[in-house]
Amino acid sequence: IATANNSNTATNDVQQCIAVMTSGGDAPGMNANVRAIIRTAIHKNCKAYVIHEGYSGLVNGGDFIKEIHWSDVNGWLSDGGTNIGTARCMEFKEREGRLTACHNMINAGITALIVCGGDGSLTGADLFRAEWPSLIKELLDTGKITQDQFDKHQFLNICGTVGSIDNDMSSTDVTIGSYSSLDRICKAIDYIDATANSHQRAFVIEVMGRHCGWLALMAGIATSADYIFIPESPSKQSEWSEHMCKVISKHRERGKRKTIVIVAEGAIDSSLNPISCNDVKDILVEKLGLDTRVTTLGHVQRGGPAVAFDRYLATMQGVYAVDAVLNGNPDTPSPMIGISENKIIKRNLVDAVKLTKSVAEAINAKDFDKVMELRDTEFSEHLKYFKAINSADFKDPSLSSENHKNFAIINVGAPAGGMNSATYAFANYCLSRGHTPYAIYNGFSGLSRHESIRSLDWLEIENWNSLGGSEIGTNRDTPLETDIGLISYYLTKYKIDGLLIVGGFEALESLHQLENSRSSYPGLRIPMVLIPATISNNVPGTEYSLGSDTCLNQLVEYCDIISQSASATRNRCFVVEVQGGNCGYIATYAQLCAGAECSYVPEEGIDLKQLNLDIQTLKINFHNDNGRNKSGRILIKSELASKALTTDVIGDIISSESNGRFDSRTAIPGHVQQGGIPSPIDRTRATRLAIKAIEFMESNFDNISKAENEIGEFIRSPEADSTAAVLGIQKNNVLFTPVSKIWDHETHKENRMRKIIFWDEAREVADMLVGRVKV
Ligand code: ATP
After folding, report:
1. Which sites bind Mg(2+) (predicted)?
2. Is the interface score ipTM higher than 0.90?
3. Cβ(119) to ligand 1 under 6 A?
């Protein structure tokens, strides 16, 4: 009990004195990063310091450098911006400024520095480290520090965590703040969409990104914009206006009432001339006669609380950064913490900065092929796909007409954010290739009972990207529960050459059934892909399911509101019940992203000793808070964590155990967790995965047709099995895995979830950062 969080402060035997600063432009998630660094440092028996106002705080010293304690960062997870301030500091760019900074750091006893900022800030940090030996020597020679101080501060350990809304840093897929910024942009464009549609207007929208078009590109995909301008992929001055007008007039001819063009702040043509929103507007007015307005989103893009993903990313990066400085030595290169797909990674900071700078150099040298090589795979894939689904013409000339196919999409299971985005991308990409996209309406029972299948029309789905739920309808019926023979019959009748299933565990079960029935039903001998989509994220074969991000955003927002209520009443905690079936993913990540006291999950059940310990910890925390805790206390419980210890029972136990010193309430967000408007992550990932699924189907006809012998029998083989696959994200890979392998080896059938849990680390971190004591 003594380790309840407020008293979790380093005592004797301090390992290191770790300071953290935020520098450059502010970004949502910076506070989550600082909180994680401070608490991890204290947890690891270090002293923690904050440097206020970036490098100028380091140069100014005094009160700008402060020791900070565990409870000082209560409630920071939900705060936007950076609570320790940030600045741009010219003095630090000069050696003199860095000498003063070095002196101030030594006087404060700081031995390691973690900088959360963009490439400029990280360049400064690395230079500081490289120069450190000469700086301390000069301080010793001029008598400003003692020999003792000199000996103790021989080496400066640094680490970078990348915070920047532009996502302009190489060697990491995403930077802290960029998805929150994208969220603000998409919400704004969703609102603009409605007015544009009402008046049949065109809107030219400027988004941030001076040297990087990531925000413009991802917003373009997520909001189904008609055209984008980004610095990485410019056209000739003589060509861009013509091409833009061709695409937009095609869209208008097909019946679209509105036009959205997104322009990155740093948009240029291939001769490096800037392209401004007004340039674009003038062309739309003059050449197409469109009633056109310009909207500059400006600093709204930096504002507000961080989305769940940024809280997760910032928190994990903070934990890894402390680990990196504790394990650093003069021979290890300065590290930078980033993420690749779903895996937190440590990269060489200098190499990452060099690579980032080389992007700007390649742009200046007009070597745009190199620019694309230097951007990560995810970026170039997204750009390729955006261009494909927004090409003016249907039918890709590189695909001959005999290769034009009929592909169908179906939703199975509960609705999840991103299902409609997948349908939108699927249909648009099919059309751009010359295929015919079909939708199967209302799941497998819709097909077998009502023959509800028809081709998708471009205009009909035009605004589906930003819609929640499932426009084509979804239910949990599997083929065997309906009529697998009829399903095969209709697939044959409509000459369906490939099937994309988007859904949760029932969708996996359905794919397994279809694949397993191929020998009896020739209509099922087609390539088939499952894109997991369920808020529970319980489908084996992937660490990410469409909808889980939207759900987490909803939960985090919900918990922020509840937490405010709990905090205002000073002596109340909330037990929040979350969905997730038998899977504790959502509960764990909600705990991590909302800073909840604990999460009870089905995989662990609720141990009475643990519950007792959690309540004792809660008592101590309420006592120590003394009414000053900025964030209210929340406990998260998965709906199926325990049969006996229901949410109400836990709430009652807490109330009665508190002896009147605090009370508890329960809160059940229920179906709110399925989300309203899908998050940008769910929309953009749905697009990328749907297009990858079509590419997979296109390239698997041979493998499946070879599985039939001369008399039409189906012979199973690894090649044939591989044509029915789950498309998932696993660590830093996007993978197609045969459903037979997943079903036979990776699925816990009774519990309807994956066998291997990948969120243990997130659980440990979530507990550690709230000082939870485990039995
Ligand atoms: P953003 O991506 O938001 O612009 P950034 O970290 O790249 O963030 P900068 O303004 O480039 O923002 O850098 C922030 C601060 O880092 C600068 O004001 C300066 O104090 C320090 N800094 C940047 N570059 C250097 C450098 N080459 N040497 C020393 N310090 C630097």
Report:
1. 119
2. yes
3. yes
